[in-house]
Protein 1
Amino acid sequence: MRELRVELEERSYPIYIGEGLLNETGAMFEKHGITAKSPVLIISDENTAGLYLRRVEDALKQKGYRTASYSVPAGEQSKTLALLQDAVTVALEAGLDRSSTVIALGGGVVGDLAGFVAATYMRGIRFVQIPTTILAHDSSVGGKVAVNHPLAKNIIGAFHQPDFVLYDIDTLKTLPIREVRAGLSEVIKHGLIWNEDFAYWCEANASKLLALDSEALIYALYEGCKVKSIVVSQDERENDLRAILNLGHTIGHALEAVAGYGELLHGEAIAIGMIGAARISVKMGQPQDVLTVTERIFNAFGLRTAIPAHLDTDSIMSAMMHDKKFKEGTMVFILPKAIGKVEIHKDVPISLVKETVDFLKQEG
Amino acid sequence: MRELRVELEERSYPIYIGEGLLNETGAMFEKHGITAKSPVLIISDENTAGLYLRRVEDALKQKGYRTASYSVPAGEQSKTLALLQDAVTVALEAGLDRSSTVIALGGGVVGDLAGFVAATYMRGIRFVQIPTTILAHDSSVGGKVAVNHPLAKNIIGAFHQPDFVLYDIDTLKTLPIREVRAGLSEVIKHGLIWNEDFAYWCEANASKLLALDSEALIYALYEGCKVKSIVVSQDERENDLRAILNLGHTIGHALEAVAGYGELLHGEAIAIGMIGAARISVKMGQPQDVLTVTERIFNAFGLRTAIPAHLDTDSIMSAMMHDKKFKEGTMVFILPKAIGKVEIHKDVPISLVKETVDFLKQEG
Ligand SMILES: NC(=O)c1ccc[n+]([C@@H]2O[C@H](COP(=O)([O-])OP(=O)(O)OC[C@H]3O[C@@H](n4cnc5c(N)ncnc54)[C@H](O)[C@@H]3O)[C@@H](O)[C@H]2O)c1
Ligand SMILES: NC(=O)c1ccc[n+]([C@@H]2O[C@H](COP(=O)([O-])OP(=O)(O)OC[C@H]3O[C@@H](n4cnc5c(N)ncnc54)[C@H](O)[C@@H]3O)[C@@H](O)[C@H]2O)c1
Ligand SMILES: [Zn+2]
Ligand SMILES: [Zn+2]
């Protein structure tokens, strides 16, 4: 088991990454001084509930904790205020009090919803994350929690740091391979924005990672979380530096929106977005390497690097416009300067972005 | 105009109390460095919208601020997640961004709802309170914001401090007298828990306050807010000291619940609760004065000091039980030791509480 400390002053917390950790849930609760007098609410989704809920409940019961559970349908459409209210119904009926804890047992969807429940129930109670997807390594650092509004994703939320994160990589064995691959895209992103060695390590270990080799996976999740935690420690409330985490996300979000959520997973969309950012960067004068290496890495993971041809360029452009990073013919973009280094550019010509989108479609 | 600073480290903020302040809204926004580039959302209720919205909008427009507005039905039933979602719809359509501000123009209901919108929109934006009730002097200090759940009041919320509070006492002139009287009950509470001189001053100035004499009102709101701010500064997240603010609230909440919200206003219920606490205190050995003076003060304001006779004692008791401050035949109570001083008692016999409730009913 490896342990990473996310440094956020009095809100600092550890991330435990290893095998067989679900069975340690109760012991970890004790270690973190969580009282057994107050009930614990475990929030999961229909997939993670069936697979892992019982194990977590048992581990808690063994140490004398009382639990209640609430499970939502799988998928993004569960991040709503309506389900937050339902979760609170369960919390109230189970008698959760101000010393209680909410556990998120699942991927980023469950993490965001359960985290927002913990942030707002009685104006904030303890929160423990048990991520069960690779993508959730990202959401396990930074304390961003939220639900969606019919008109905008993640628009209603809070910053609420967990007490600790228990990352049992055994749970990843049941994850569909497409989710594994897409989740790794966000791991690679952490290499690309901050850590050249790690980015190259990812390329070299692509097949091990896709095969969920334990040692490689623990290392990759550790390094991925570490990059994010360094960035977040320096900018907890997203004022400035934290923007670099959005490498690939400007184009990626537009692709997700136009494709309709579902055709492209988030990780798949931002992989293409990172290729787009690298191409723009090269066109603006960075060495060709930035693009070729980025492409090589994503190819090693079998992540597609081209935009599905049937997506309309104008729709993609106007989805980006909607993101409101545009200003007088230019827009703000996070661009790679080299592998492991990015810069915020406020002056990327819209015409160049459009040209890039068009080019990436012909590739497809 | 008087100014009180609520000391909460980097979340400190001023409360401006005076006449004609609504017209200064725009100037105050400028003074607080709020950008005119981002739109402002004004949340009000059907009463305050009709009376004061236009004035606030004009004052902001004069200084170049763009505004949007959202108004909810008057009353407690507007503190819901559904209306929070509606408010966010308006915020999104008006283009509110991370530099935008939400204004609460109204009493405690609007303050709690708008504050929770500000706390959660894009994970927290600026918040300005323009309280228009006397009771809202209480909610303007401390940063507690929340909505209700069908099973529990104020159970979903956050701590979110305003940038500043603009308390225009002219708005109180349209407040129904019953609301004035009930709001003053919470002002008196602040004297009773912390400031003997102020408690006696309230008694001596009861008729001036009920007549909304400007000088008296500004002084009373200032002193009331000051007590609360001292307590909150020492205990922002309600760990301990802050509990003393609940003088009268254990019995008061039970009466509100049993009477059905509406028969007794919050301020009316806690006035009776404070009489109850004083009576329990005397029975437990404090000097008789604590009770006689407390009664005298509330009498001076025409606030009823007895429980409506038709309310069932057992129902009141079980509503208190529901509050879960009970433990093996005793319960936790905030009790006055003297005028201007309270203590937390963890060992008040339930039998004494019941006897007190019964006694207060015979008084009625
Ligand atoms: N808070 C943050 O900082 C942050 C960061 C990144 C992403 N997110 C959010 O995360 C969400 C996406 O996360 P995600 O990709 O984990 O999605 P997800 O939670 O929907 O999980 C993806 C799918 O895998 C299933 N699943 C999860 N774990 C499984 C397991 N171990 N075995 C089998 N199936 C499993 C889920 O039921 C779901 O169907 C988005 O809502 C996004 O906004 C948040
Ligand atoms: N956040 C806190 O710390 C805190 C503290 C105390 C109370 N509260 C909350 O405050 C709420 C009660 O506040 P309230 O008593 O101000 O209730 P309220 O906001 O419902 O106002 C009472 C009534 O007066 C009307 N009104 C308001 N201003 C008016 C004006 N100037 N002229 C004419 N009518 C006017 C309202 O429309 C309403 O009908 C409760 O929901 C309570 O939970 C919160
Ligand atoms: Zn992402
Ligand atoms: Zn009160």
Note: The longest strand of chain B covers residues 330-338.
Protein 2
Amino acid sequence: MHRPLELLDERRFPIDPWRLIDIDPAPIDLGRTETLFATANGYLGMRDNPPEGRVAHTHGTYVNGFHETWEIQHAESAHAFARVGQTLVNVPDAKVMKLYVDDEPIRVDTADLEKHERLLDFSKGTHERSLIWRTPAGKRISMTTTRLISLEHRHLALIRLELVMLEGRAPVVISSQLLNRQDGADEYESTTNRLAPGDDPRRGRQFERRVLEPIEQRHVTEFGDGGEIGLSHRTLSSKMRIAVACRHEVSGDVSPAITTTIQPDHAKVVFAFDLEVGQRIVIDKWVSYHTAREVPCGELLDRCHRTIDRACEGGVEALFASQESTLQKFWDTADLRVDGDPRSQQAIRWNLFQLVQATAAADEHGIPAKGVTSAGYDGHYFWDTEVYVIPFLARTNPGAARKLLRFRHGLLDAARRRAAEMSQVGALYPWRTINGEEASAYYAAGTAQYHINAAVAYAIEQYTRATGDLAFLHREGAEILVETARLWLDLGFISRDGAFHIHRVTGPDEYTTVVNDNLYTNVMARFNLRFAAQVLRRIVEDDDSALQWLRERTGVNLAEADDWDRCADLMYLPFDAALGIHPQDDSFLDLEPWDFAGTPSDQYPLLLHFHPLVIYRHQVLKQADVVLAMYLRGEHFDRETKRRNFDYYDPITTGDSSLSACVQSIAASEVGYRDLAYEYFLQALHLDLSDTHGNTVDGVHIANAGGVWAGLVHGFGGIRFTETGLAIAPDLPDHWEGLSIGFVHCGSRCRLEVNRSGWNITVFDGPGVLIELDTGAQHVDVGCTYSAT
Amino acid sequence: MHRPLELLDERRFPIDPWRLIDIDPAPIDLGRTETLFATANGYLGMRDNPPEGRVAHTHGTYVNGFHETWEIQHAESAHAFARVGQTLVNVPDAKVMKLYVDDEPIRVDTADLEKHERLLDFSKGTHERSLIWRTPAGKRISMTTTRLISLEHRHLALIRLELVMLEGRAPVVISSQLLNRQDGADEYESTTNRLAPGDDPRRGRQFERRVLEPIEQRHVTEFGDGGEIGLSHRTLSSKMRIAVACRHEVSGDVSPAITTTIQPDHAKVVFAFDLEVGQRIVIDKWVSYHTAREVPCGELLDRCHRTIDRACEGGVEALFASQESTLQKFWDTADLRVDGDPRSQQAIRWNLFQLVQATAAADEHGIPAKGVTSAGYDGHYFWDTEVYVIPFLARTNPGAARKLLRFRHGLLDAARRRAAEMSQVGALYPWRTINGEEASAYYAAGTAQYHINAAVAYAIEQYTRATGDLAFLHREGAEILVETARLWLDLGFISRDGAFHIHRVTGPDEYTTVVNDNLYTNVMARFNLRFAAQVLRRIVEDDDSALQWLRERTGVNLAEADDWDRCADLMYLPFDAALGIHPQDDSFLDLEPWDFAGTPSDQYPLLLHFHPLVIYRHQVLKQADVVLAMYLRGEHFDRETKRRNFDYYDPITTGDSSLSACVQSIAASEVGYRDLAYEYFLQALHLDLSDTHGNTVDGVHIANAGGVWAGLVHGFGGIRFTETGLAIAPDLPDHWEGLSIGFVHCGSRCRLEVNRSGWNITVFDGPGVLIELDTGAQHVDVGCTYSAT
């Protein structure tokens, strides 16, 4: 379906290849731009709230995995319904540096500003904001802040604030704070402008109670200007602990008078200056966050202290340099360059930068649906990581991909317990979770999405193809594969027709739920079963020590591989001979067509305007399962079937899911609809920038950013990563003059350059690359460029 | 499926044709017997709690329709999910008459009792309890209470307490109370022993807060001994008002000293006697409850006063006589007599008596699933009334059936609003409700049960057949039929196969939900459509004034009848040619068989031990939809198909639904499985008495009691009420010597007598009866007996 797309206004957001710039921040889109300009490193994230506090949609600071739990109250409960709600916590805010001139605070919504702009720099990895304020007393002062969350040192952030008195002379005060804004700690501004209560399940839980209880506060006087101040808290229910500390270094033309105050939810250092015209001061605020479940708060405060200590020793410039060089490495490897479309180029880099911000230092955590830019979707990990993010990381930062897979492996025991609760053998990964327990309160669009098991298997495959990392595949990877394959075998059954069926499941398309033989699920389950069998056989043949390791953990035996293969071979895949297409599920084609003509545009997304039963009984999709299956397991569908499937499903796909447009783009590209592919690509590319889903306020859609990467690499770039190497069949949008794609393949850093006359690939290092062309395989060595025209 | 059945122990519960007697009440089954011995009249209900208070499972007093509302908190909400929870309120308790001898209270669980028995008398309509207590001081006293809730005067109850000093002499105190035990009013004993929290959706909501706020208290000193005392309250959220008042008349050998105390939640009159051996005293406690939404509490207290006034004037004996004569009329009309099975006879009468207690004075209210014996299922009205109770009432108390249909008509506007919320035209009755709004928090086993619309149409048909009441049919009845038919037309659609399909619905069997073309739903929808068309055509032909009335309310036109008939004719009914059976829904036969052999008996009911998805993906039933469809619309199935259907579904029907056994019995009888029919009949007959579903504690299963009636009338009695008259084909269980069935037919009171050699029917009054036999129709006049051997 075609959706209207209104791009960012260039007059306010000028085009720039390496920066997102806003030269006139407006209160009206406060929430959206807080997200667009957020800074993060995958561990720590800060929304773009102004340092002076106050005017904000949501004052948000988040630490990956730091969550509160609560009992899910089901209006009508049933056996094995999810019990433990988990929500990412908005942690104490270190962004606050309030400015007072003549004791007047600045508020951007009412202040007389000569200039006000902000930018996010994708190469420097910084957020900058500058403004010139004409104060109520008629004086003029310039304030510039630079905010950096270190991609190298995940616990570290820096905020540099620079003031220059442009006109007049005045007492100037900077109150730099650590502020716990928990609801319930209502001495302070609340965290968020409460929205009208609604039925939007995409928004995270709003706690009605205090979440963090203060544990220990600290003031270490001998370090920095005003001393190092620290707060620590513990979540009331999940008993997780967090500490935040900061230290200031003041430089410039004037020395301040300094006052430090520490309260349980509020610590601050107040700097008072008398500034004359032309005088300049700079305050560097070093910030560190540490979190843990078992470690005492005092110890966490110590860790913050050491982080800051080490960082101060290196100095501000070294930190800026480290940030830039970390990014330089990323862009060298992974930059995607488009010739002839500067607007898209900027948006592409913004999306890639979001992927970096969501993953760089996520380490032993998953990637929440919104990264660490918000608590949207409660900060839960879905299958997004495995299907949309790991394929990107495997080709740009394989080490990070490995960590994410190890994270999933770490949740395997919880998945085993969940399978048992669901009366099944093997392991069943939760549809949404932070701590490994199923947190999906609506099973029909949650637990019933068994396909998440296969998504994990898919990510293992993608990672293995990118790295050849058999050490992981034969142990942690194999353990996951064995347990997920067992689940599938148990979930399905061989029916009277002799085929293997899987019933009462929900595919990715949540506009039909709890159906029989969902095509996507069956295709992916088949893959999961076969992959598990293949890996198990290889381990049995080649890797005795891994086999022993695996047997101890799973008791697996080779006969299971036969069962998996047999059921994979018998897997039922719905197919309608008359139409020549795969029905999304066994009875999908029997459903009533949706009345698209009679559905005004303000009734989208449908889920907010129609009872689920109304949606479920019609042929209408949130995202197209069959199309996604064709993308992830393209080898199982011939091109003609792909085109017929696409032709059938595309018009009935609303794209109400943010995961839809990127996949439609890739599929359209593959079946030869170049213009449509570009249209969908733009939908994905600008999904957050243009807020096409109306909920960018709730955070960046990280999976979609991964989809933008995939749209370029697999769609227009036409790269397929096969079992043995890669295949290349680019097809650029008409007005693009060139496309350059960097990626890694089994240790080789490669770059594909496509232009209107052909393409070539260069391998910079590593062992070389095997390229499969229609005309046969071709090996490309290191330092060599292979060209095709 | 066969379920074990352990009948009541005759040594404790001796067989008696007209009474349920318990000669040794035991604390272990307190909850169950509180239900079995409850007294009620359909408006007011009292659980069998001892007058001395204290030892109880649930101190329960309920008034039909008197409910509290609360916001349903969905763990994950969606558009048009039910919003307003409704729960029958446990109202202030007037049963309490505490006894103290030598200032020692009696507690039945610890007291030294020489005798302790209770009984429920089905012909007198009273509950009696008597005991002899050897007090701690070694004295002996006999206490007898008689409790009556008037079937004639719905606001009136009487408790007679009689004491005789058998040995010794002692100060004796009776503290007669009105006690509001709301949780939150925790000065007093709580209403209930809290059970361990669980997933049993059958239990009602437990409020964690006070529900009733005290409004006005009253002490009218000039009436009775100790004056008339009254309390009134208002529900906090739904703003319903209730008043209860009582007055005492003391007689006997000694005059008491009397003290009266009134507090907001607690009013009492304390009678103090000095009793010598052989002395006897009697206290008659007249009680009245009045409720309303809009009427001030003071006015309700006035109404209580007038009710009591009038009752006292008549006197106690008149009230006992009225109760007995009301029941005499019922038994004369409706008694079901079995020869040769006294145990069943007692249980049959207990079930019929429960139907009387649930319906006699329900008046403008529905019949809650548990009558007024508990707040189980929150006191909600389901389709039970229409499918299981109205057919009984139409043939035993047609005026009461009419009131219930008028009650449904009164909810029609709410049903229209619900349809609109669900993006539909016409009216959609809520699956469960008290005030007309959908209160089902789990739509898959709630709102998706669209078939409730057809249940209402079915009840209208049954009532019309029983009474010929065209005045109702052509107005209120027609309005319901028009709006429900419109809903069906809009819900279904004509598919590419040319048939009319109804998708994503749940039939009565909640072990498969949200399926396509549920056979039961489609059969009943077809009936609903045709019945609406037929009635509309007759109105157009014959009843101008009704047509005008109907047009004003619905804007209906005759062309709609054509649409209804057309879609009814095109209605798709799944049929499997190979098996010769109707699949329960379009894909039911594709599901995996349930592993019954591997399911231990403690895993039933399945819903408490398996996640819904596990149940849904297997061929396992809570109750058999197809079998129910064969019963309600028997004319559409030939006998061979009925037998094949029964043979297929019976072994996979768990009977986890209390609505299952009675229908299986009737169907088994019809297809010739006489022994199985009897086995299922016993399951239904003793369902509460033997507590086979483990939740009799939560109230009497009223619909099942209706099913017991149907099992005798339609099953063994073999009576079918057809469009024009009735057909008779009895088939008695082998060891029954006779069966006698009383019923009314279009104003004629009839009695069918069946014995081993044949049957005859006698018509006592009214216009006569048309009997259809295989050999042709036969008219039977008033006063005439028609015999067949």
Note: Chain A has a mean pLDDT of 94.
